[in-house]
């Protein structure tokens, strides 16, 4: 198998430049061998997911084009994404997530103010699950 984060591909779909920068900085520091790509809206993100086939998808809920919940739902219907780990990042408060719960079942949600504290551990966990699922 490949090393811990070795060769793992992460796709971030996030329209805020601030959070794009923050997350890519976090990844460079803690997961230097992970390849990160970013998309700024749901439509582009969907196309990139097909092309890049990420191991881990990090997605914001409120996106231009198509919201994160819809995006996750449509990706999950494709066999090639069954093993993809998903992490949701959002600025919404937990009580605002109601309309999206159908799509977010079983998916870890990180609230943006807690990104630096929570994302590294979650990503480590997702990468480990990806290794466990690898043939």
Strand element count = 5
Unreliable runs, pLDDT <50, ≥5 residues?
none
Distance between the termini: 9 Å
Query: H/E element string?
Result: EHEHEHEHEH
| Helix content estimate | 40-55%
Mean pLDDT over the full residue set: 90
Which sequence of strands runs across the widest sheet?
Answer: 2-1-3-4-5
- The helix/strand class is alpha/beta
Structural descriptors:
alpha/beta; 5 helices
Question: How would you describe what is shown here?
Answer:
With 135 residues, this protein is of the alpha/beta class. The protein is built from five helices and five strands. α1 crosses α5. The longest helix has 19 residues, at 115-133. The relative contact order is 0.19.
Compact description:
With 135 residues, the protein is an alpha/beta fold. The protein has helices at 17-30, 42-52, 68-76, 101-104, 115-133, and strands at residues 9-13, 35-39, 56-60, 85-90, 109-111. The longest helix has 19 residues, at 115-133.
List the helices and strands and how they pair.
Elements (H helix, E strand, L loop, with lengths): L8 E5 L3 H14 L4 E5 L2 H11 L3 E5 L7 H9 L8 E6 L10 H4 L4 E3 L3 H19 L2
Parallel strand pairs: 1-2, 1-3, 3-4, 4-5
Helix pairs in contact: 1-5
């Amino acid at each position: 198998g490949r090393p811990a984060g070795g060769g793992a591909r992460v796709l971030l779909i996030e329209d805020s430049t601030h959070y794009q920068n923050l997350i890519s900085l976090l990844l460079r520091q803690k997961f230097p061998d992970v390849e990160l790509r970013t998309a700024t809206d749901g439509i582009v993100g969907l196309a990139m997911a097909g092309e890049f086939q990420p191991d881990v998808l990090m997605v914001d809920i409120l996106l231009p084009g198509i919201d994160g919940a819809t995006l996750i739902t449509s990706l999950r219907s494709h066999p090639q994404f069954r093993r993809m780990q998903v992490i949701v990042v959002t600025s919404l408060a937990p009580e605002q997530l109601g309309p999206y719960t159908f799509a977010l079942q079983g998916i870890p949600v990180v609230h943006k103010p807690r990104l630096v504290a929570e994302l590294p551990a979650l990503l480590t966990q997702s990468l480990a699950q990806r290794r466990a699922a690898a043939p």
